[in-house]
Amino acid sequence: MKKILAAAGAVVVAFGAYAAPIATHAASPALVPLSRIQPGDLIRGQTFSAVYYYGVDGFRYVFPNDKTYFTWYADFSTVKFISDTDLQTIQIGGNVTYKPGVRMIKINSDPKTYAVDAGGTLRWVASEQAATALYGSDWNKMIDDVPDAFFPNYKQGGADIEQASDFDKANAEAEATDIGRDKDLKAPVAVSATDAGFSPATVTVTVKTPVKFTNNGTANHAATGDDLSWGTGTMKPGQSFEHYFKKAGTYTYSDTLYPNLKGTIVVQ
Fold first, then answer.
1. Sign of CA dihedral 147, 149, 151, 153
2. Residues 6+ apart with CB under 8 A from 220
3. pLDDT by residue (tens digit) across 93-142?
């Protein structure tokens, strides 16, 4: 079978790890208060044109360029403008990857062309016959060049596609009903930091579930891992901070401002 070593695709300019040069509207509409932003919303600030997907985990995920965006959405009509101040309170979770099944991608430093499967998993399309069967006779027009800086956002190691039956393209696209599902995002487990201590003092979460610390006290608080590998930083009353614990284990922590206040996170 003929190997696909390279393919033509529009060159995408890298503007930075979390910058999206997308023009959403000619003029800014009325600002939406943060209290009305819901998981699954598309948001952007007042000053910069970067567009974000707001996840159920409470993080914002940036579209690195317009090509990524248009694999998921047809236009910008649902983008909500929020104040720059509100936007800064939402932590960045990472970049959005291409919607599975829609287009293929490659980078200049790698001759292989990849189909995108669930969760941003890359699968090498190893033959022209497979590419034609899956993406049509003009398959070479269904490939986008992804800047090297964004390539690590995708998962390597997906099974090669030697023939069309190796990849259920239609199902991959249908299963990715939204970005949150494709990324397997989960709502955070809440921990309240009060002047009397952390509540609950011990929580158990899975590896893919974030923990959200909120200062519900009257003084500043700062949860910091006893091994100093993570910390919320100083949270003023009402402020929050979320953290993903990426490895299973038991994580003990204390309040650096009030060391007698302690807690434990059990990650399974």
1. negative
2. 234, 235, 236, 237, 257
3. 999 999 999 999 999 888 999 999 999 999 999 999 999 999 999 999 99
